[in-house]
Specification:
This protein is mostly beta strands. It contains two helices and 29 strands. A five-stranded antiparallel beta sheet has the order 1-2-29-28-27, with no helix packed on it. Strand 27 and strand 28 (327-332) form a beta hairpin.
């Protein structure tokens, strides 16, 4: 029986085993700013990676911000003044500032697939920082946002409400009237973007890199769009009114025109992310009674609570997996200012290969 099967069948037994393990071995000493503690609900070991005396924010969930080769994490912090990019060594706990920015968009930080450069938005400038020598250069100005895909996918940028594809110094218009940046598909064949249908409701459109006309994928009370790892379907959350409560469904819409498929109803997920092979999801619950970080196994639709997040805004928790699916990262302001946390899940989830590595 694999660990993945075990997670689906006996989550309670696994949780009990982890509680016993925490009590028996004790907690190791802090490294740098890293502080380990037992979650008050599950007693799973949680590591706080940054001190809550300063604001520390993770990039957008769909951006690559954890290295699969050199064990570091990229984040934004105001510890030195205005928000700037930082790198945390996940082995030693050492934190290094990578550069100075005037008006950094913390969500824009993204490591390129080769893990040699850090891409970011500083005001309206699209910049790149070399991760070895920390030298920065400006690629484009007059940009609102961007999405960095795989080696096969160019950068997608947006000027005003115009979505464009930029490659080799040239731009081509993909769509007009976009209310969000495009999120590049892992398959490198296009991107998805938002249009606001009405207050509280959105439309998700797919803009192909080989076709001039965008295609509507889904609309309604939907949020938290994320590509399925193979790039053939869009994953998202949909609010559904039940007789006594509002449910949060995890759904997917395939690019082949198939009807919307409900993967599972969740415990009020406000945000989520899949692991590298799409077999497990991690979500942040918006429930005030149970403000938790939750694992959801796709095959069995079973959930397991990892720890509490207790964030004031659950949609900002940004839960994400490491590239090998062995850790979960999230942010929360429950100890003061926003800090970054991690939970080890290697005993619960099979290790996956990082396809971009």
């Amino acid at each position: 029986m694999t660990r993945r099967t075990l997670l689906g069948l006996v989550p309670g037994a696994l949780l009990a085993a982890q509680k016993h393990d925490v009590k028996s071995r004790g907690l190791p000493p802090a490294r740098g700013e890293f502080v380990r503690f037992a979650d008050r609900l599950t007693e799973n070991v949680v590591v706080r990676l940054t001190v809550p005396a300063h604001q520390s924010l993770l990039p957008a969930r769909e951006n690559r911000f954890v290295s699969s080769r050199e064990a570091f994490l990229i984040f934004a912090s105001d510890r030195s003044g205005p928000f700037s990019p930082f790198r945390a060594n996940l082995k030693t706990g050492a934190i290094l500032q990578l550069g100075e920015t005037k008006t950094l968009d913390p969500r824009s930080l993204a490591i390129d697939p080769r893990e040699r450069e850090l891409w970011l938005m500083d005001g309206t400038e699209l910049k790149v920082i070399n991760l070895q020598n920390r030298k920065a250069r400006t690629l484009l100005d007059g940009v609102n946002d961007f999405s960095l895909g795989t080696r096969r996918a160019p950068v997608v940028i947006r000027r005003g409400t115009r979505l464009e594809r930029w490659a080799s110094g040239r731009t081509s218009v993909l769509a007009d009237g976009a209310s969000s940046r495009g999120i590049t598909s892992p398959a490198g064949n296009g991107c998805v973007f938002n249009r606001e249908e009405s207050p509280g409701e959105l439309e998700y459109w797919f803009a192909s890199f080989s076709s001039a006309k965008p295609r509507l994928l889904a609309k309604g009370k939907i949020s938290s769009a994320y590509w399925r790892p193979d790039g053939q379907a869009l994953l998202f959350l949909r609010e559904v009114q039940r007789p006594r409560y509002i449910a949060s469904q995890l759904s997917e819409m395939a690019l082949d025109g198939s009807p919307e498929h409900v993967i599972s109803e969740t415990t009020q997920f406000a945000a989520f992310a899949p692991n590298t092979d799409g077999s497990v999801f991690v979500g942040a619950s918006r429930s005030k009674a149970q403000p938790d970080i939750v694992l959801l196994l796709r095959s069995t639709r079973r959930e397991m609570v990892l720890c509490e997040h207790r964030a004031s805004k659950p949609e900002s928790v940004t839960p994400s997996f490491s590239p090998n699916s062995q850790r979960v990262y999230f942010q929360s302001d429950h100890e003061g200012k926003s800090a970054i946390y991690s939970v080890n899940v290697e005993r619960l989830i099979e290790k996956t290969e990082d396809e971009a590595a």
